Amino acid sequence: MQSMKKIMVSLLCLLGSSLLAGCAFNGKMVELPYAPVVNAVGGGGELYLAKSAEPASSERKGRASWIVGVMKNNEGEQIGDVVTGVPPGDLLLHAFAEEFRSAGYAVKTVGAIPTGAVAGIYFSRLTIAMEQATSMMKLDARSKVTVAAELWQNGKQIATLDYEKAYADSAVTKRDQLLQFTLEKAVQDLMKQAVPEIIRKFGVAVKLPEGPRPVPEVAPVAPEPSATVAPPQALTVIPAPVGFYLVWQGAPQDQTNVTGYEIARATVADGPYTTVATVGKGVFLYHDSAASGGTTYYYKVRAMGKAYSPYTGVVAGGK
Q: Which residue, 21, 83, 94, 314, is the most exposed by fewest CB within 10 angstroms?
């Protein structure tokens, strides 16, 4: 009798999680819309951000995804995965970039910190771990983010810093938003600790001289497309709370003769296109926060090196 009761409770919990959480067996997709919360000051000059390589993605319904957590029933059995549509390290790197820009730095995300750079941060670890446990009565969610960062100044490593923040909560209503909420809170708490400390470590040596702050670099006028550099692949445009995320797969020559990627945008598919940003080699994510709502935008990306690759196909994004 007790065994039958246990089975019935499990079935009810599974049914409840499917109805209330959008069918846990298919997994849950989370995002990390991010706006600065630290309000740090004291930054200035160029700051390079680089990170270690991440595991390859898996395919879910024709879309790349990265597993960052598990979903469980009230018996502690795994019933699904928590996934992101963007590499988790890229999500956290983007959050750091937004905070440091807000603090006054001219941030550049690159594949490797340039030799002799005045200030750079190499993130050897950027991880997200999430868990959701579902029952008929409530939902429990927990998110943990960990960061390991090497600080470089004028070509020398000046510090190694480690951070870890976790946030947990439970809810009876608005269950579909809880897991996302815990991730945002964990990242915000980590930024509030890490960003001011990193700025203090760099100190006055990275200050700009008096005068206007330099604008982000853009690529020079393109030469003819080069047959030696293949274009990026699988360009995808993902709506964000502000603007769009662009994600792509790197050109095959990314680790050899590719120096970065150029992002072009237009409001008409046939153009004209305007270069809106460049990112370094090994960086396959760009957040176009300047794209306004209610407008359809068209994007294409090409690799940069001694010559430019052809562009990717045009991909539209709209809300």
A: 314
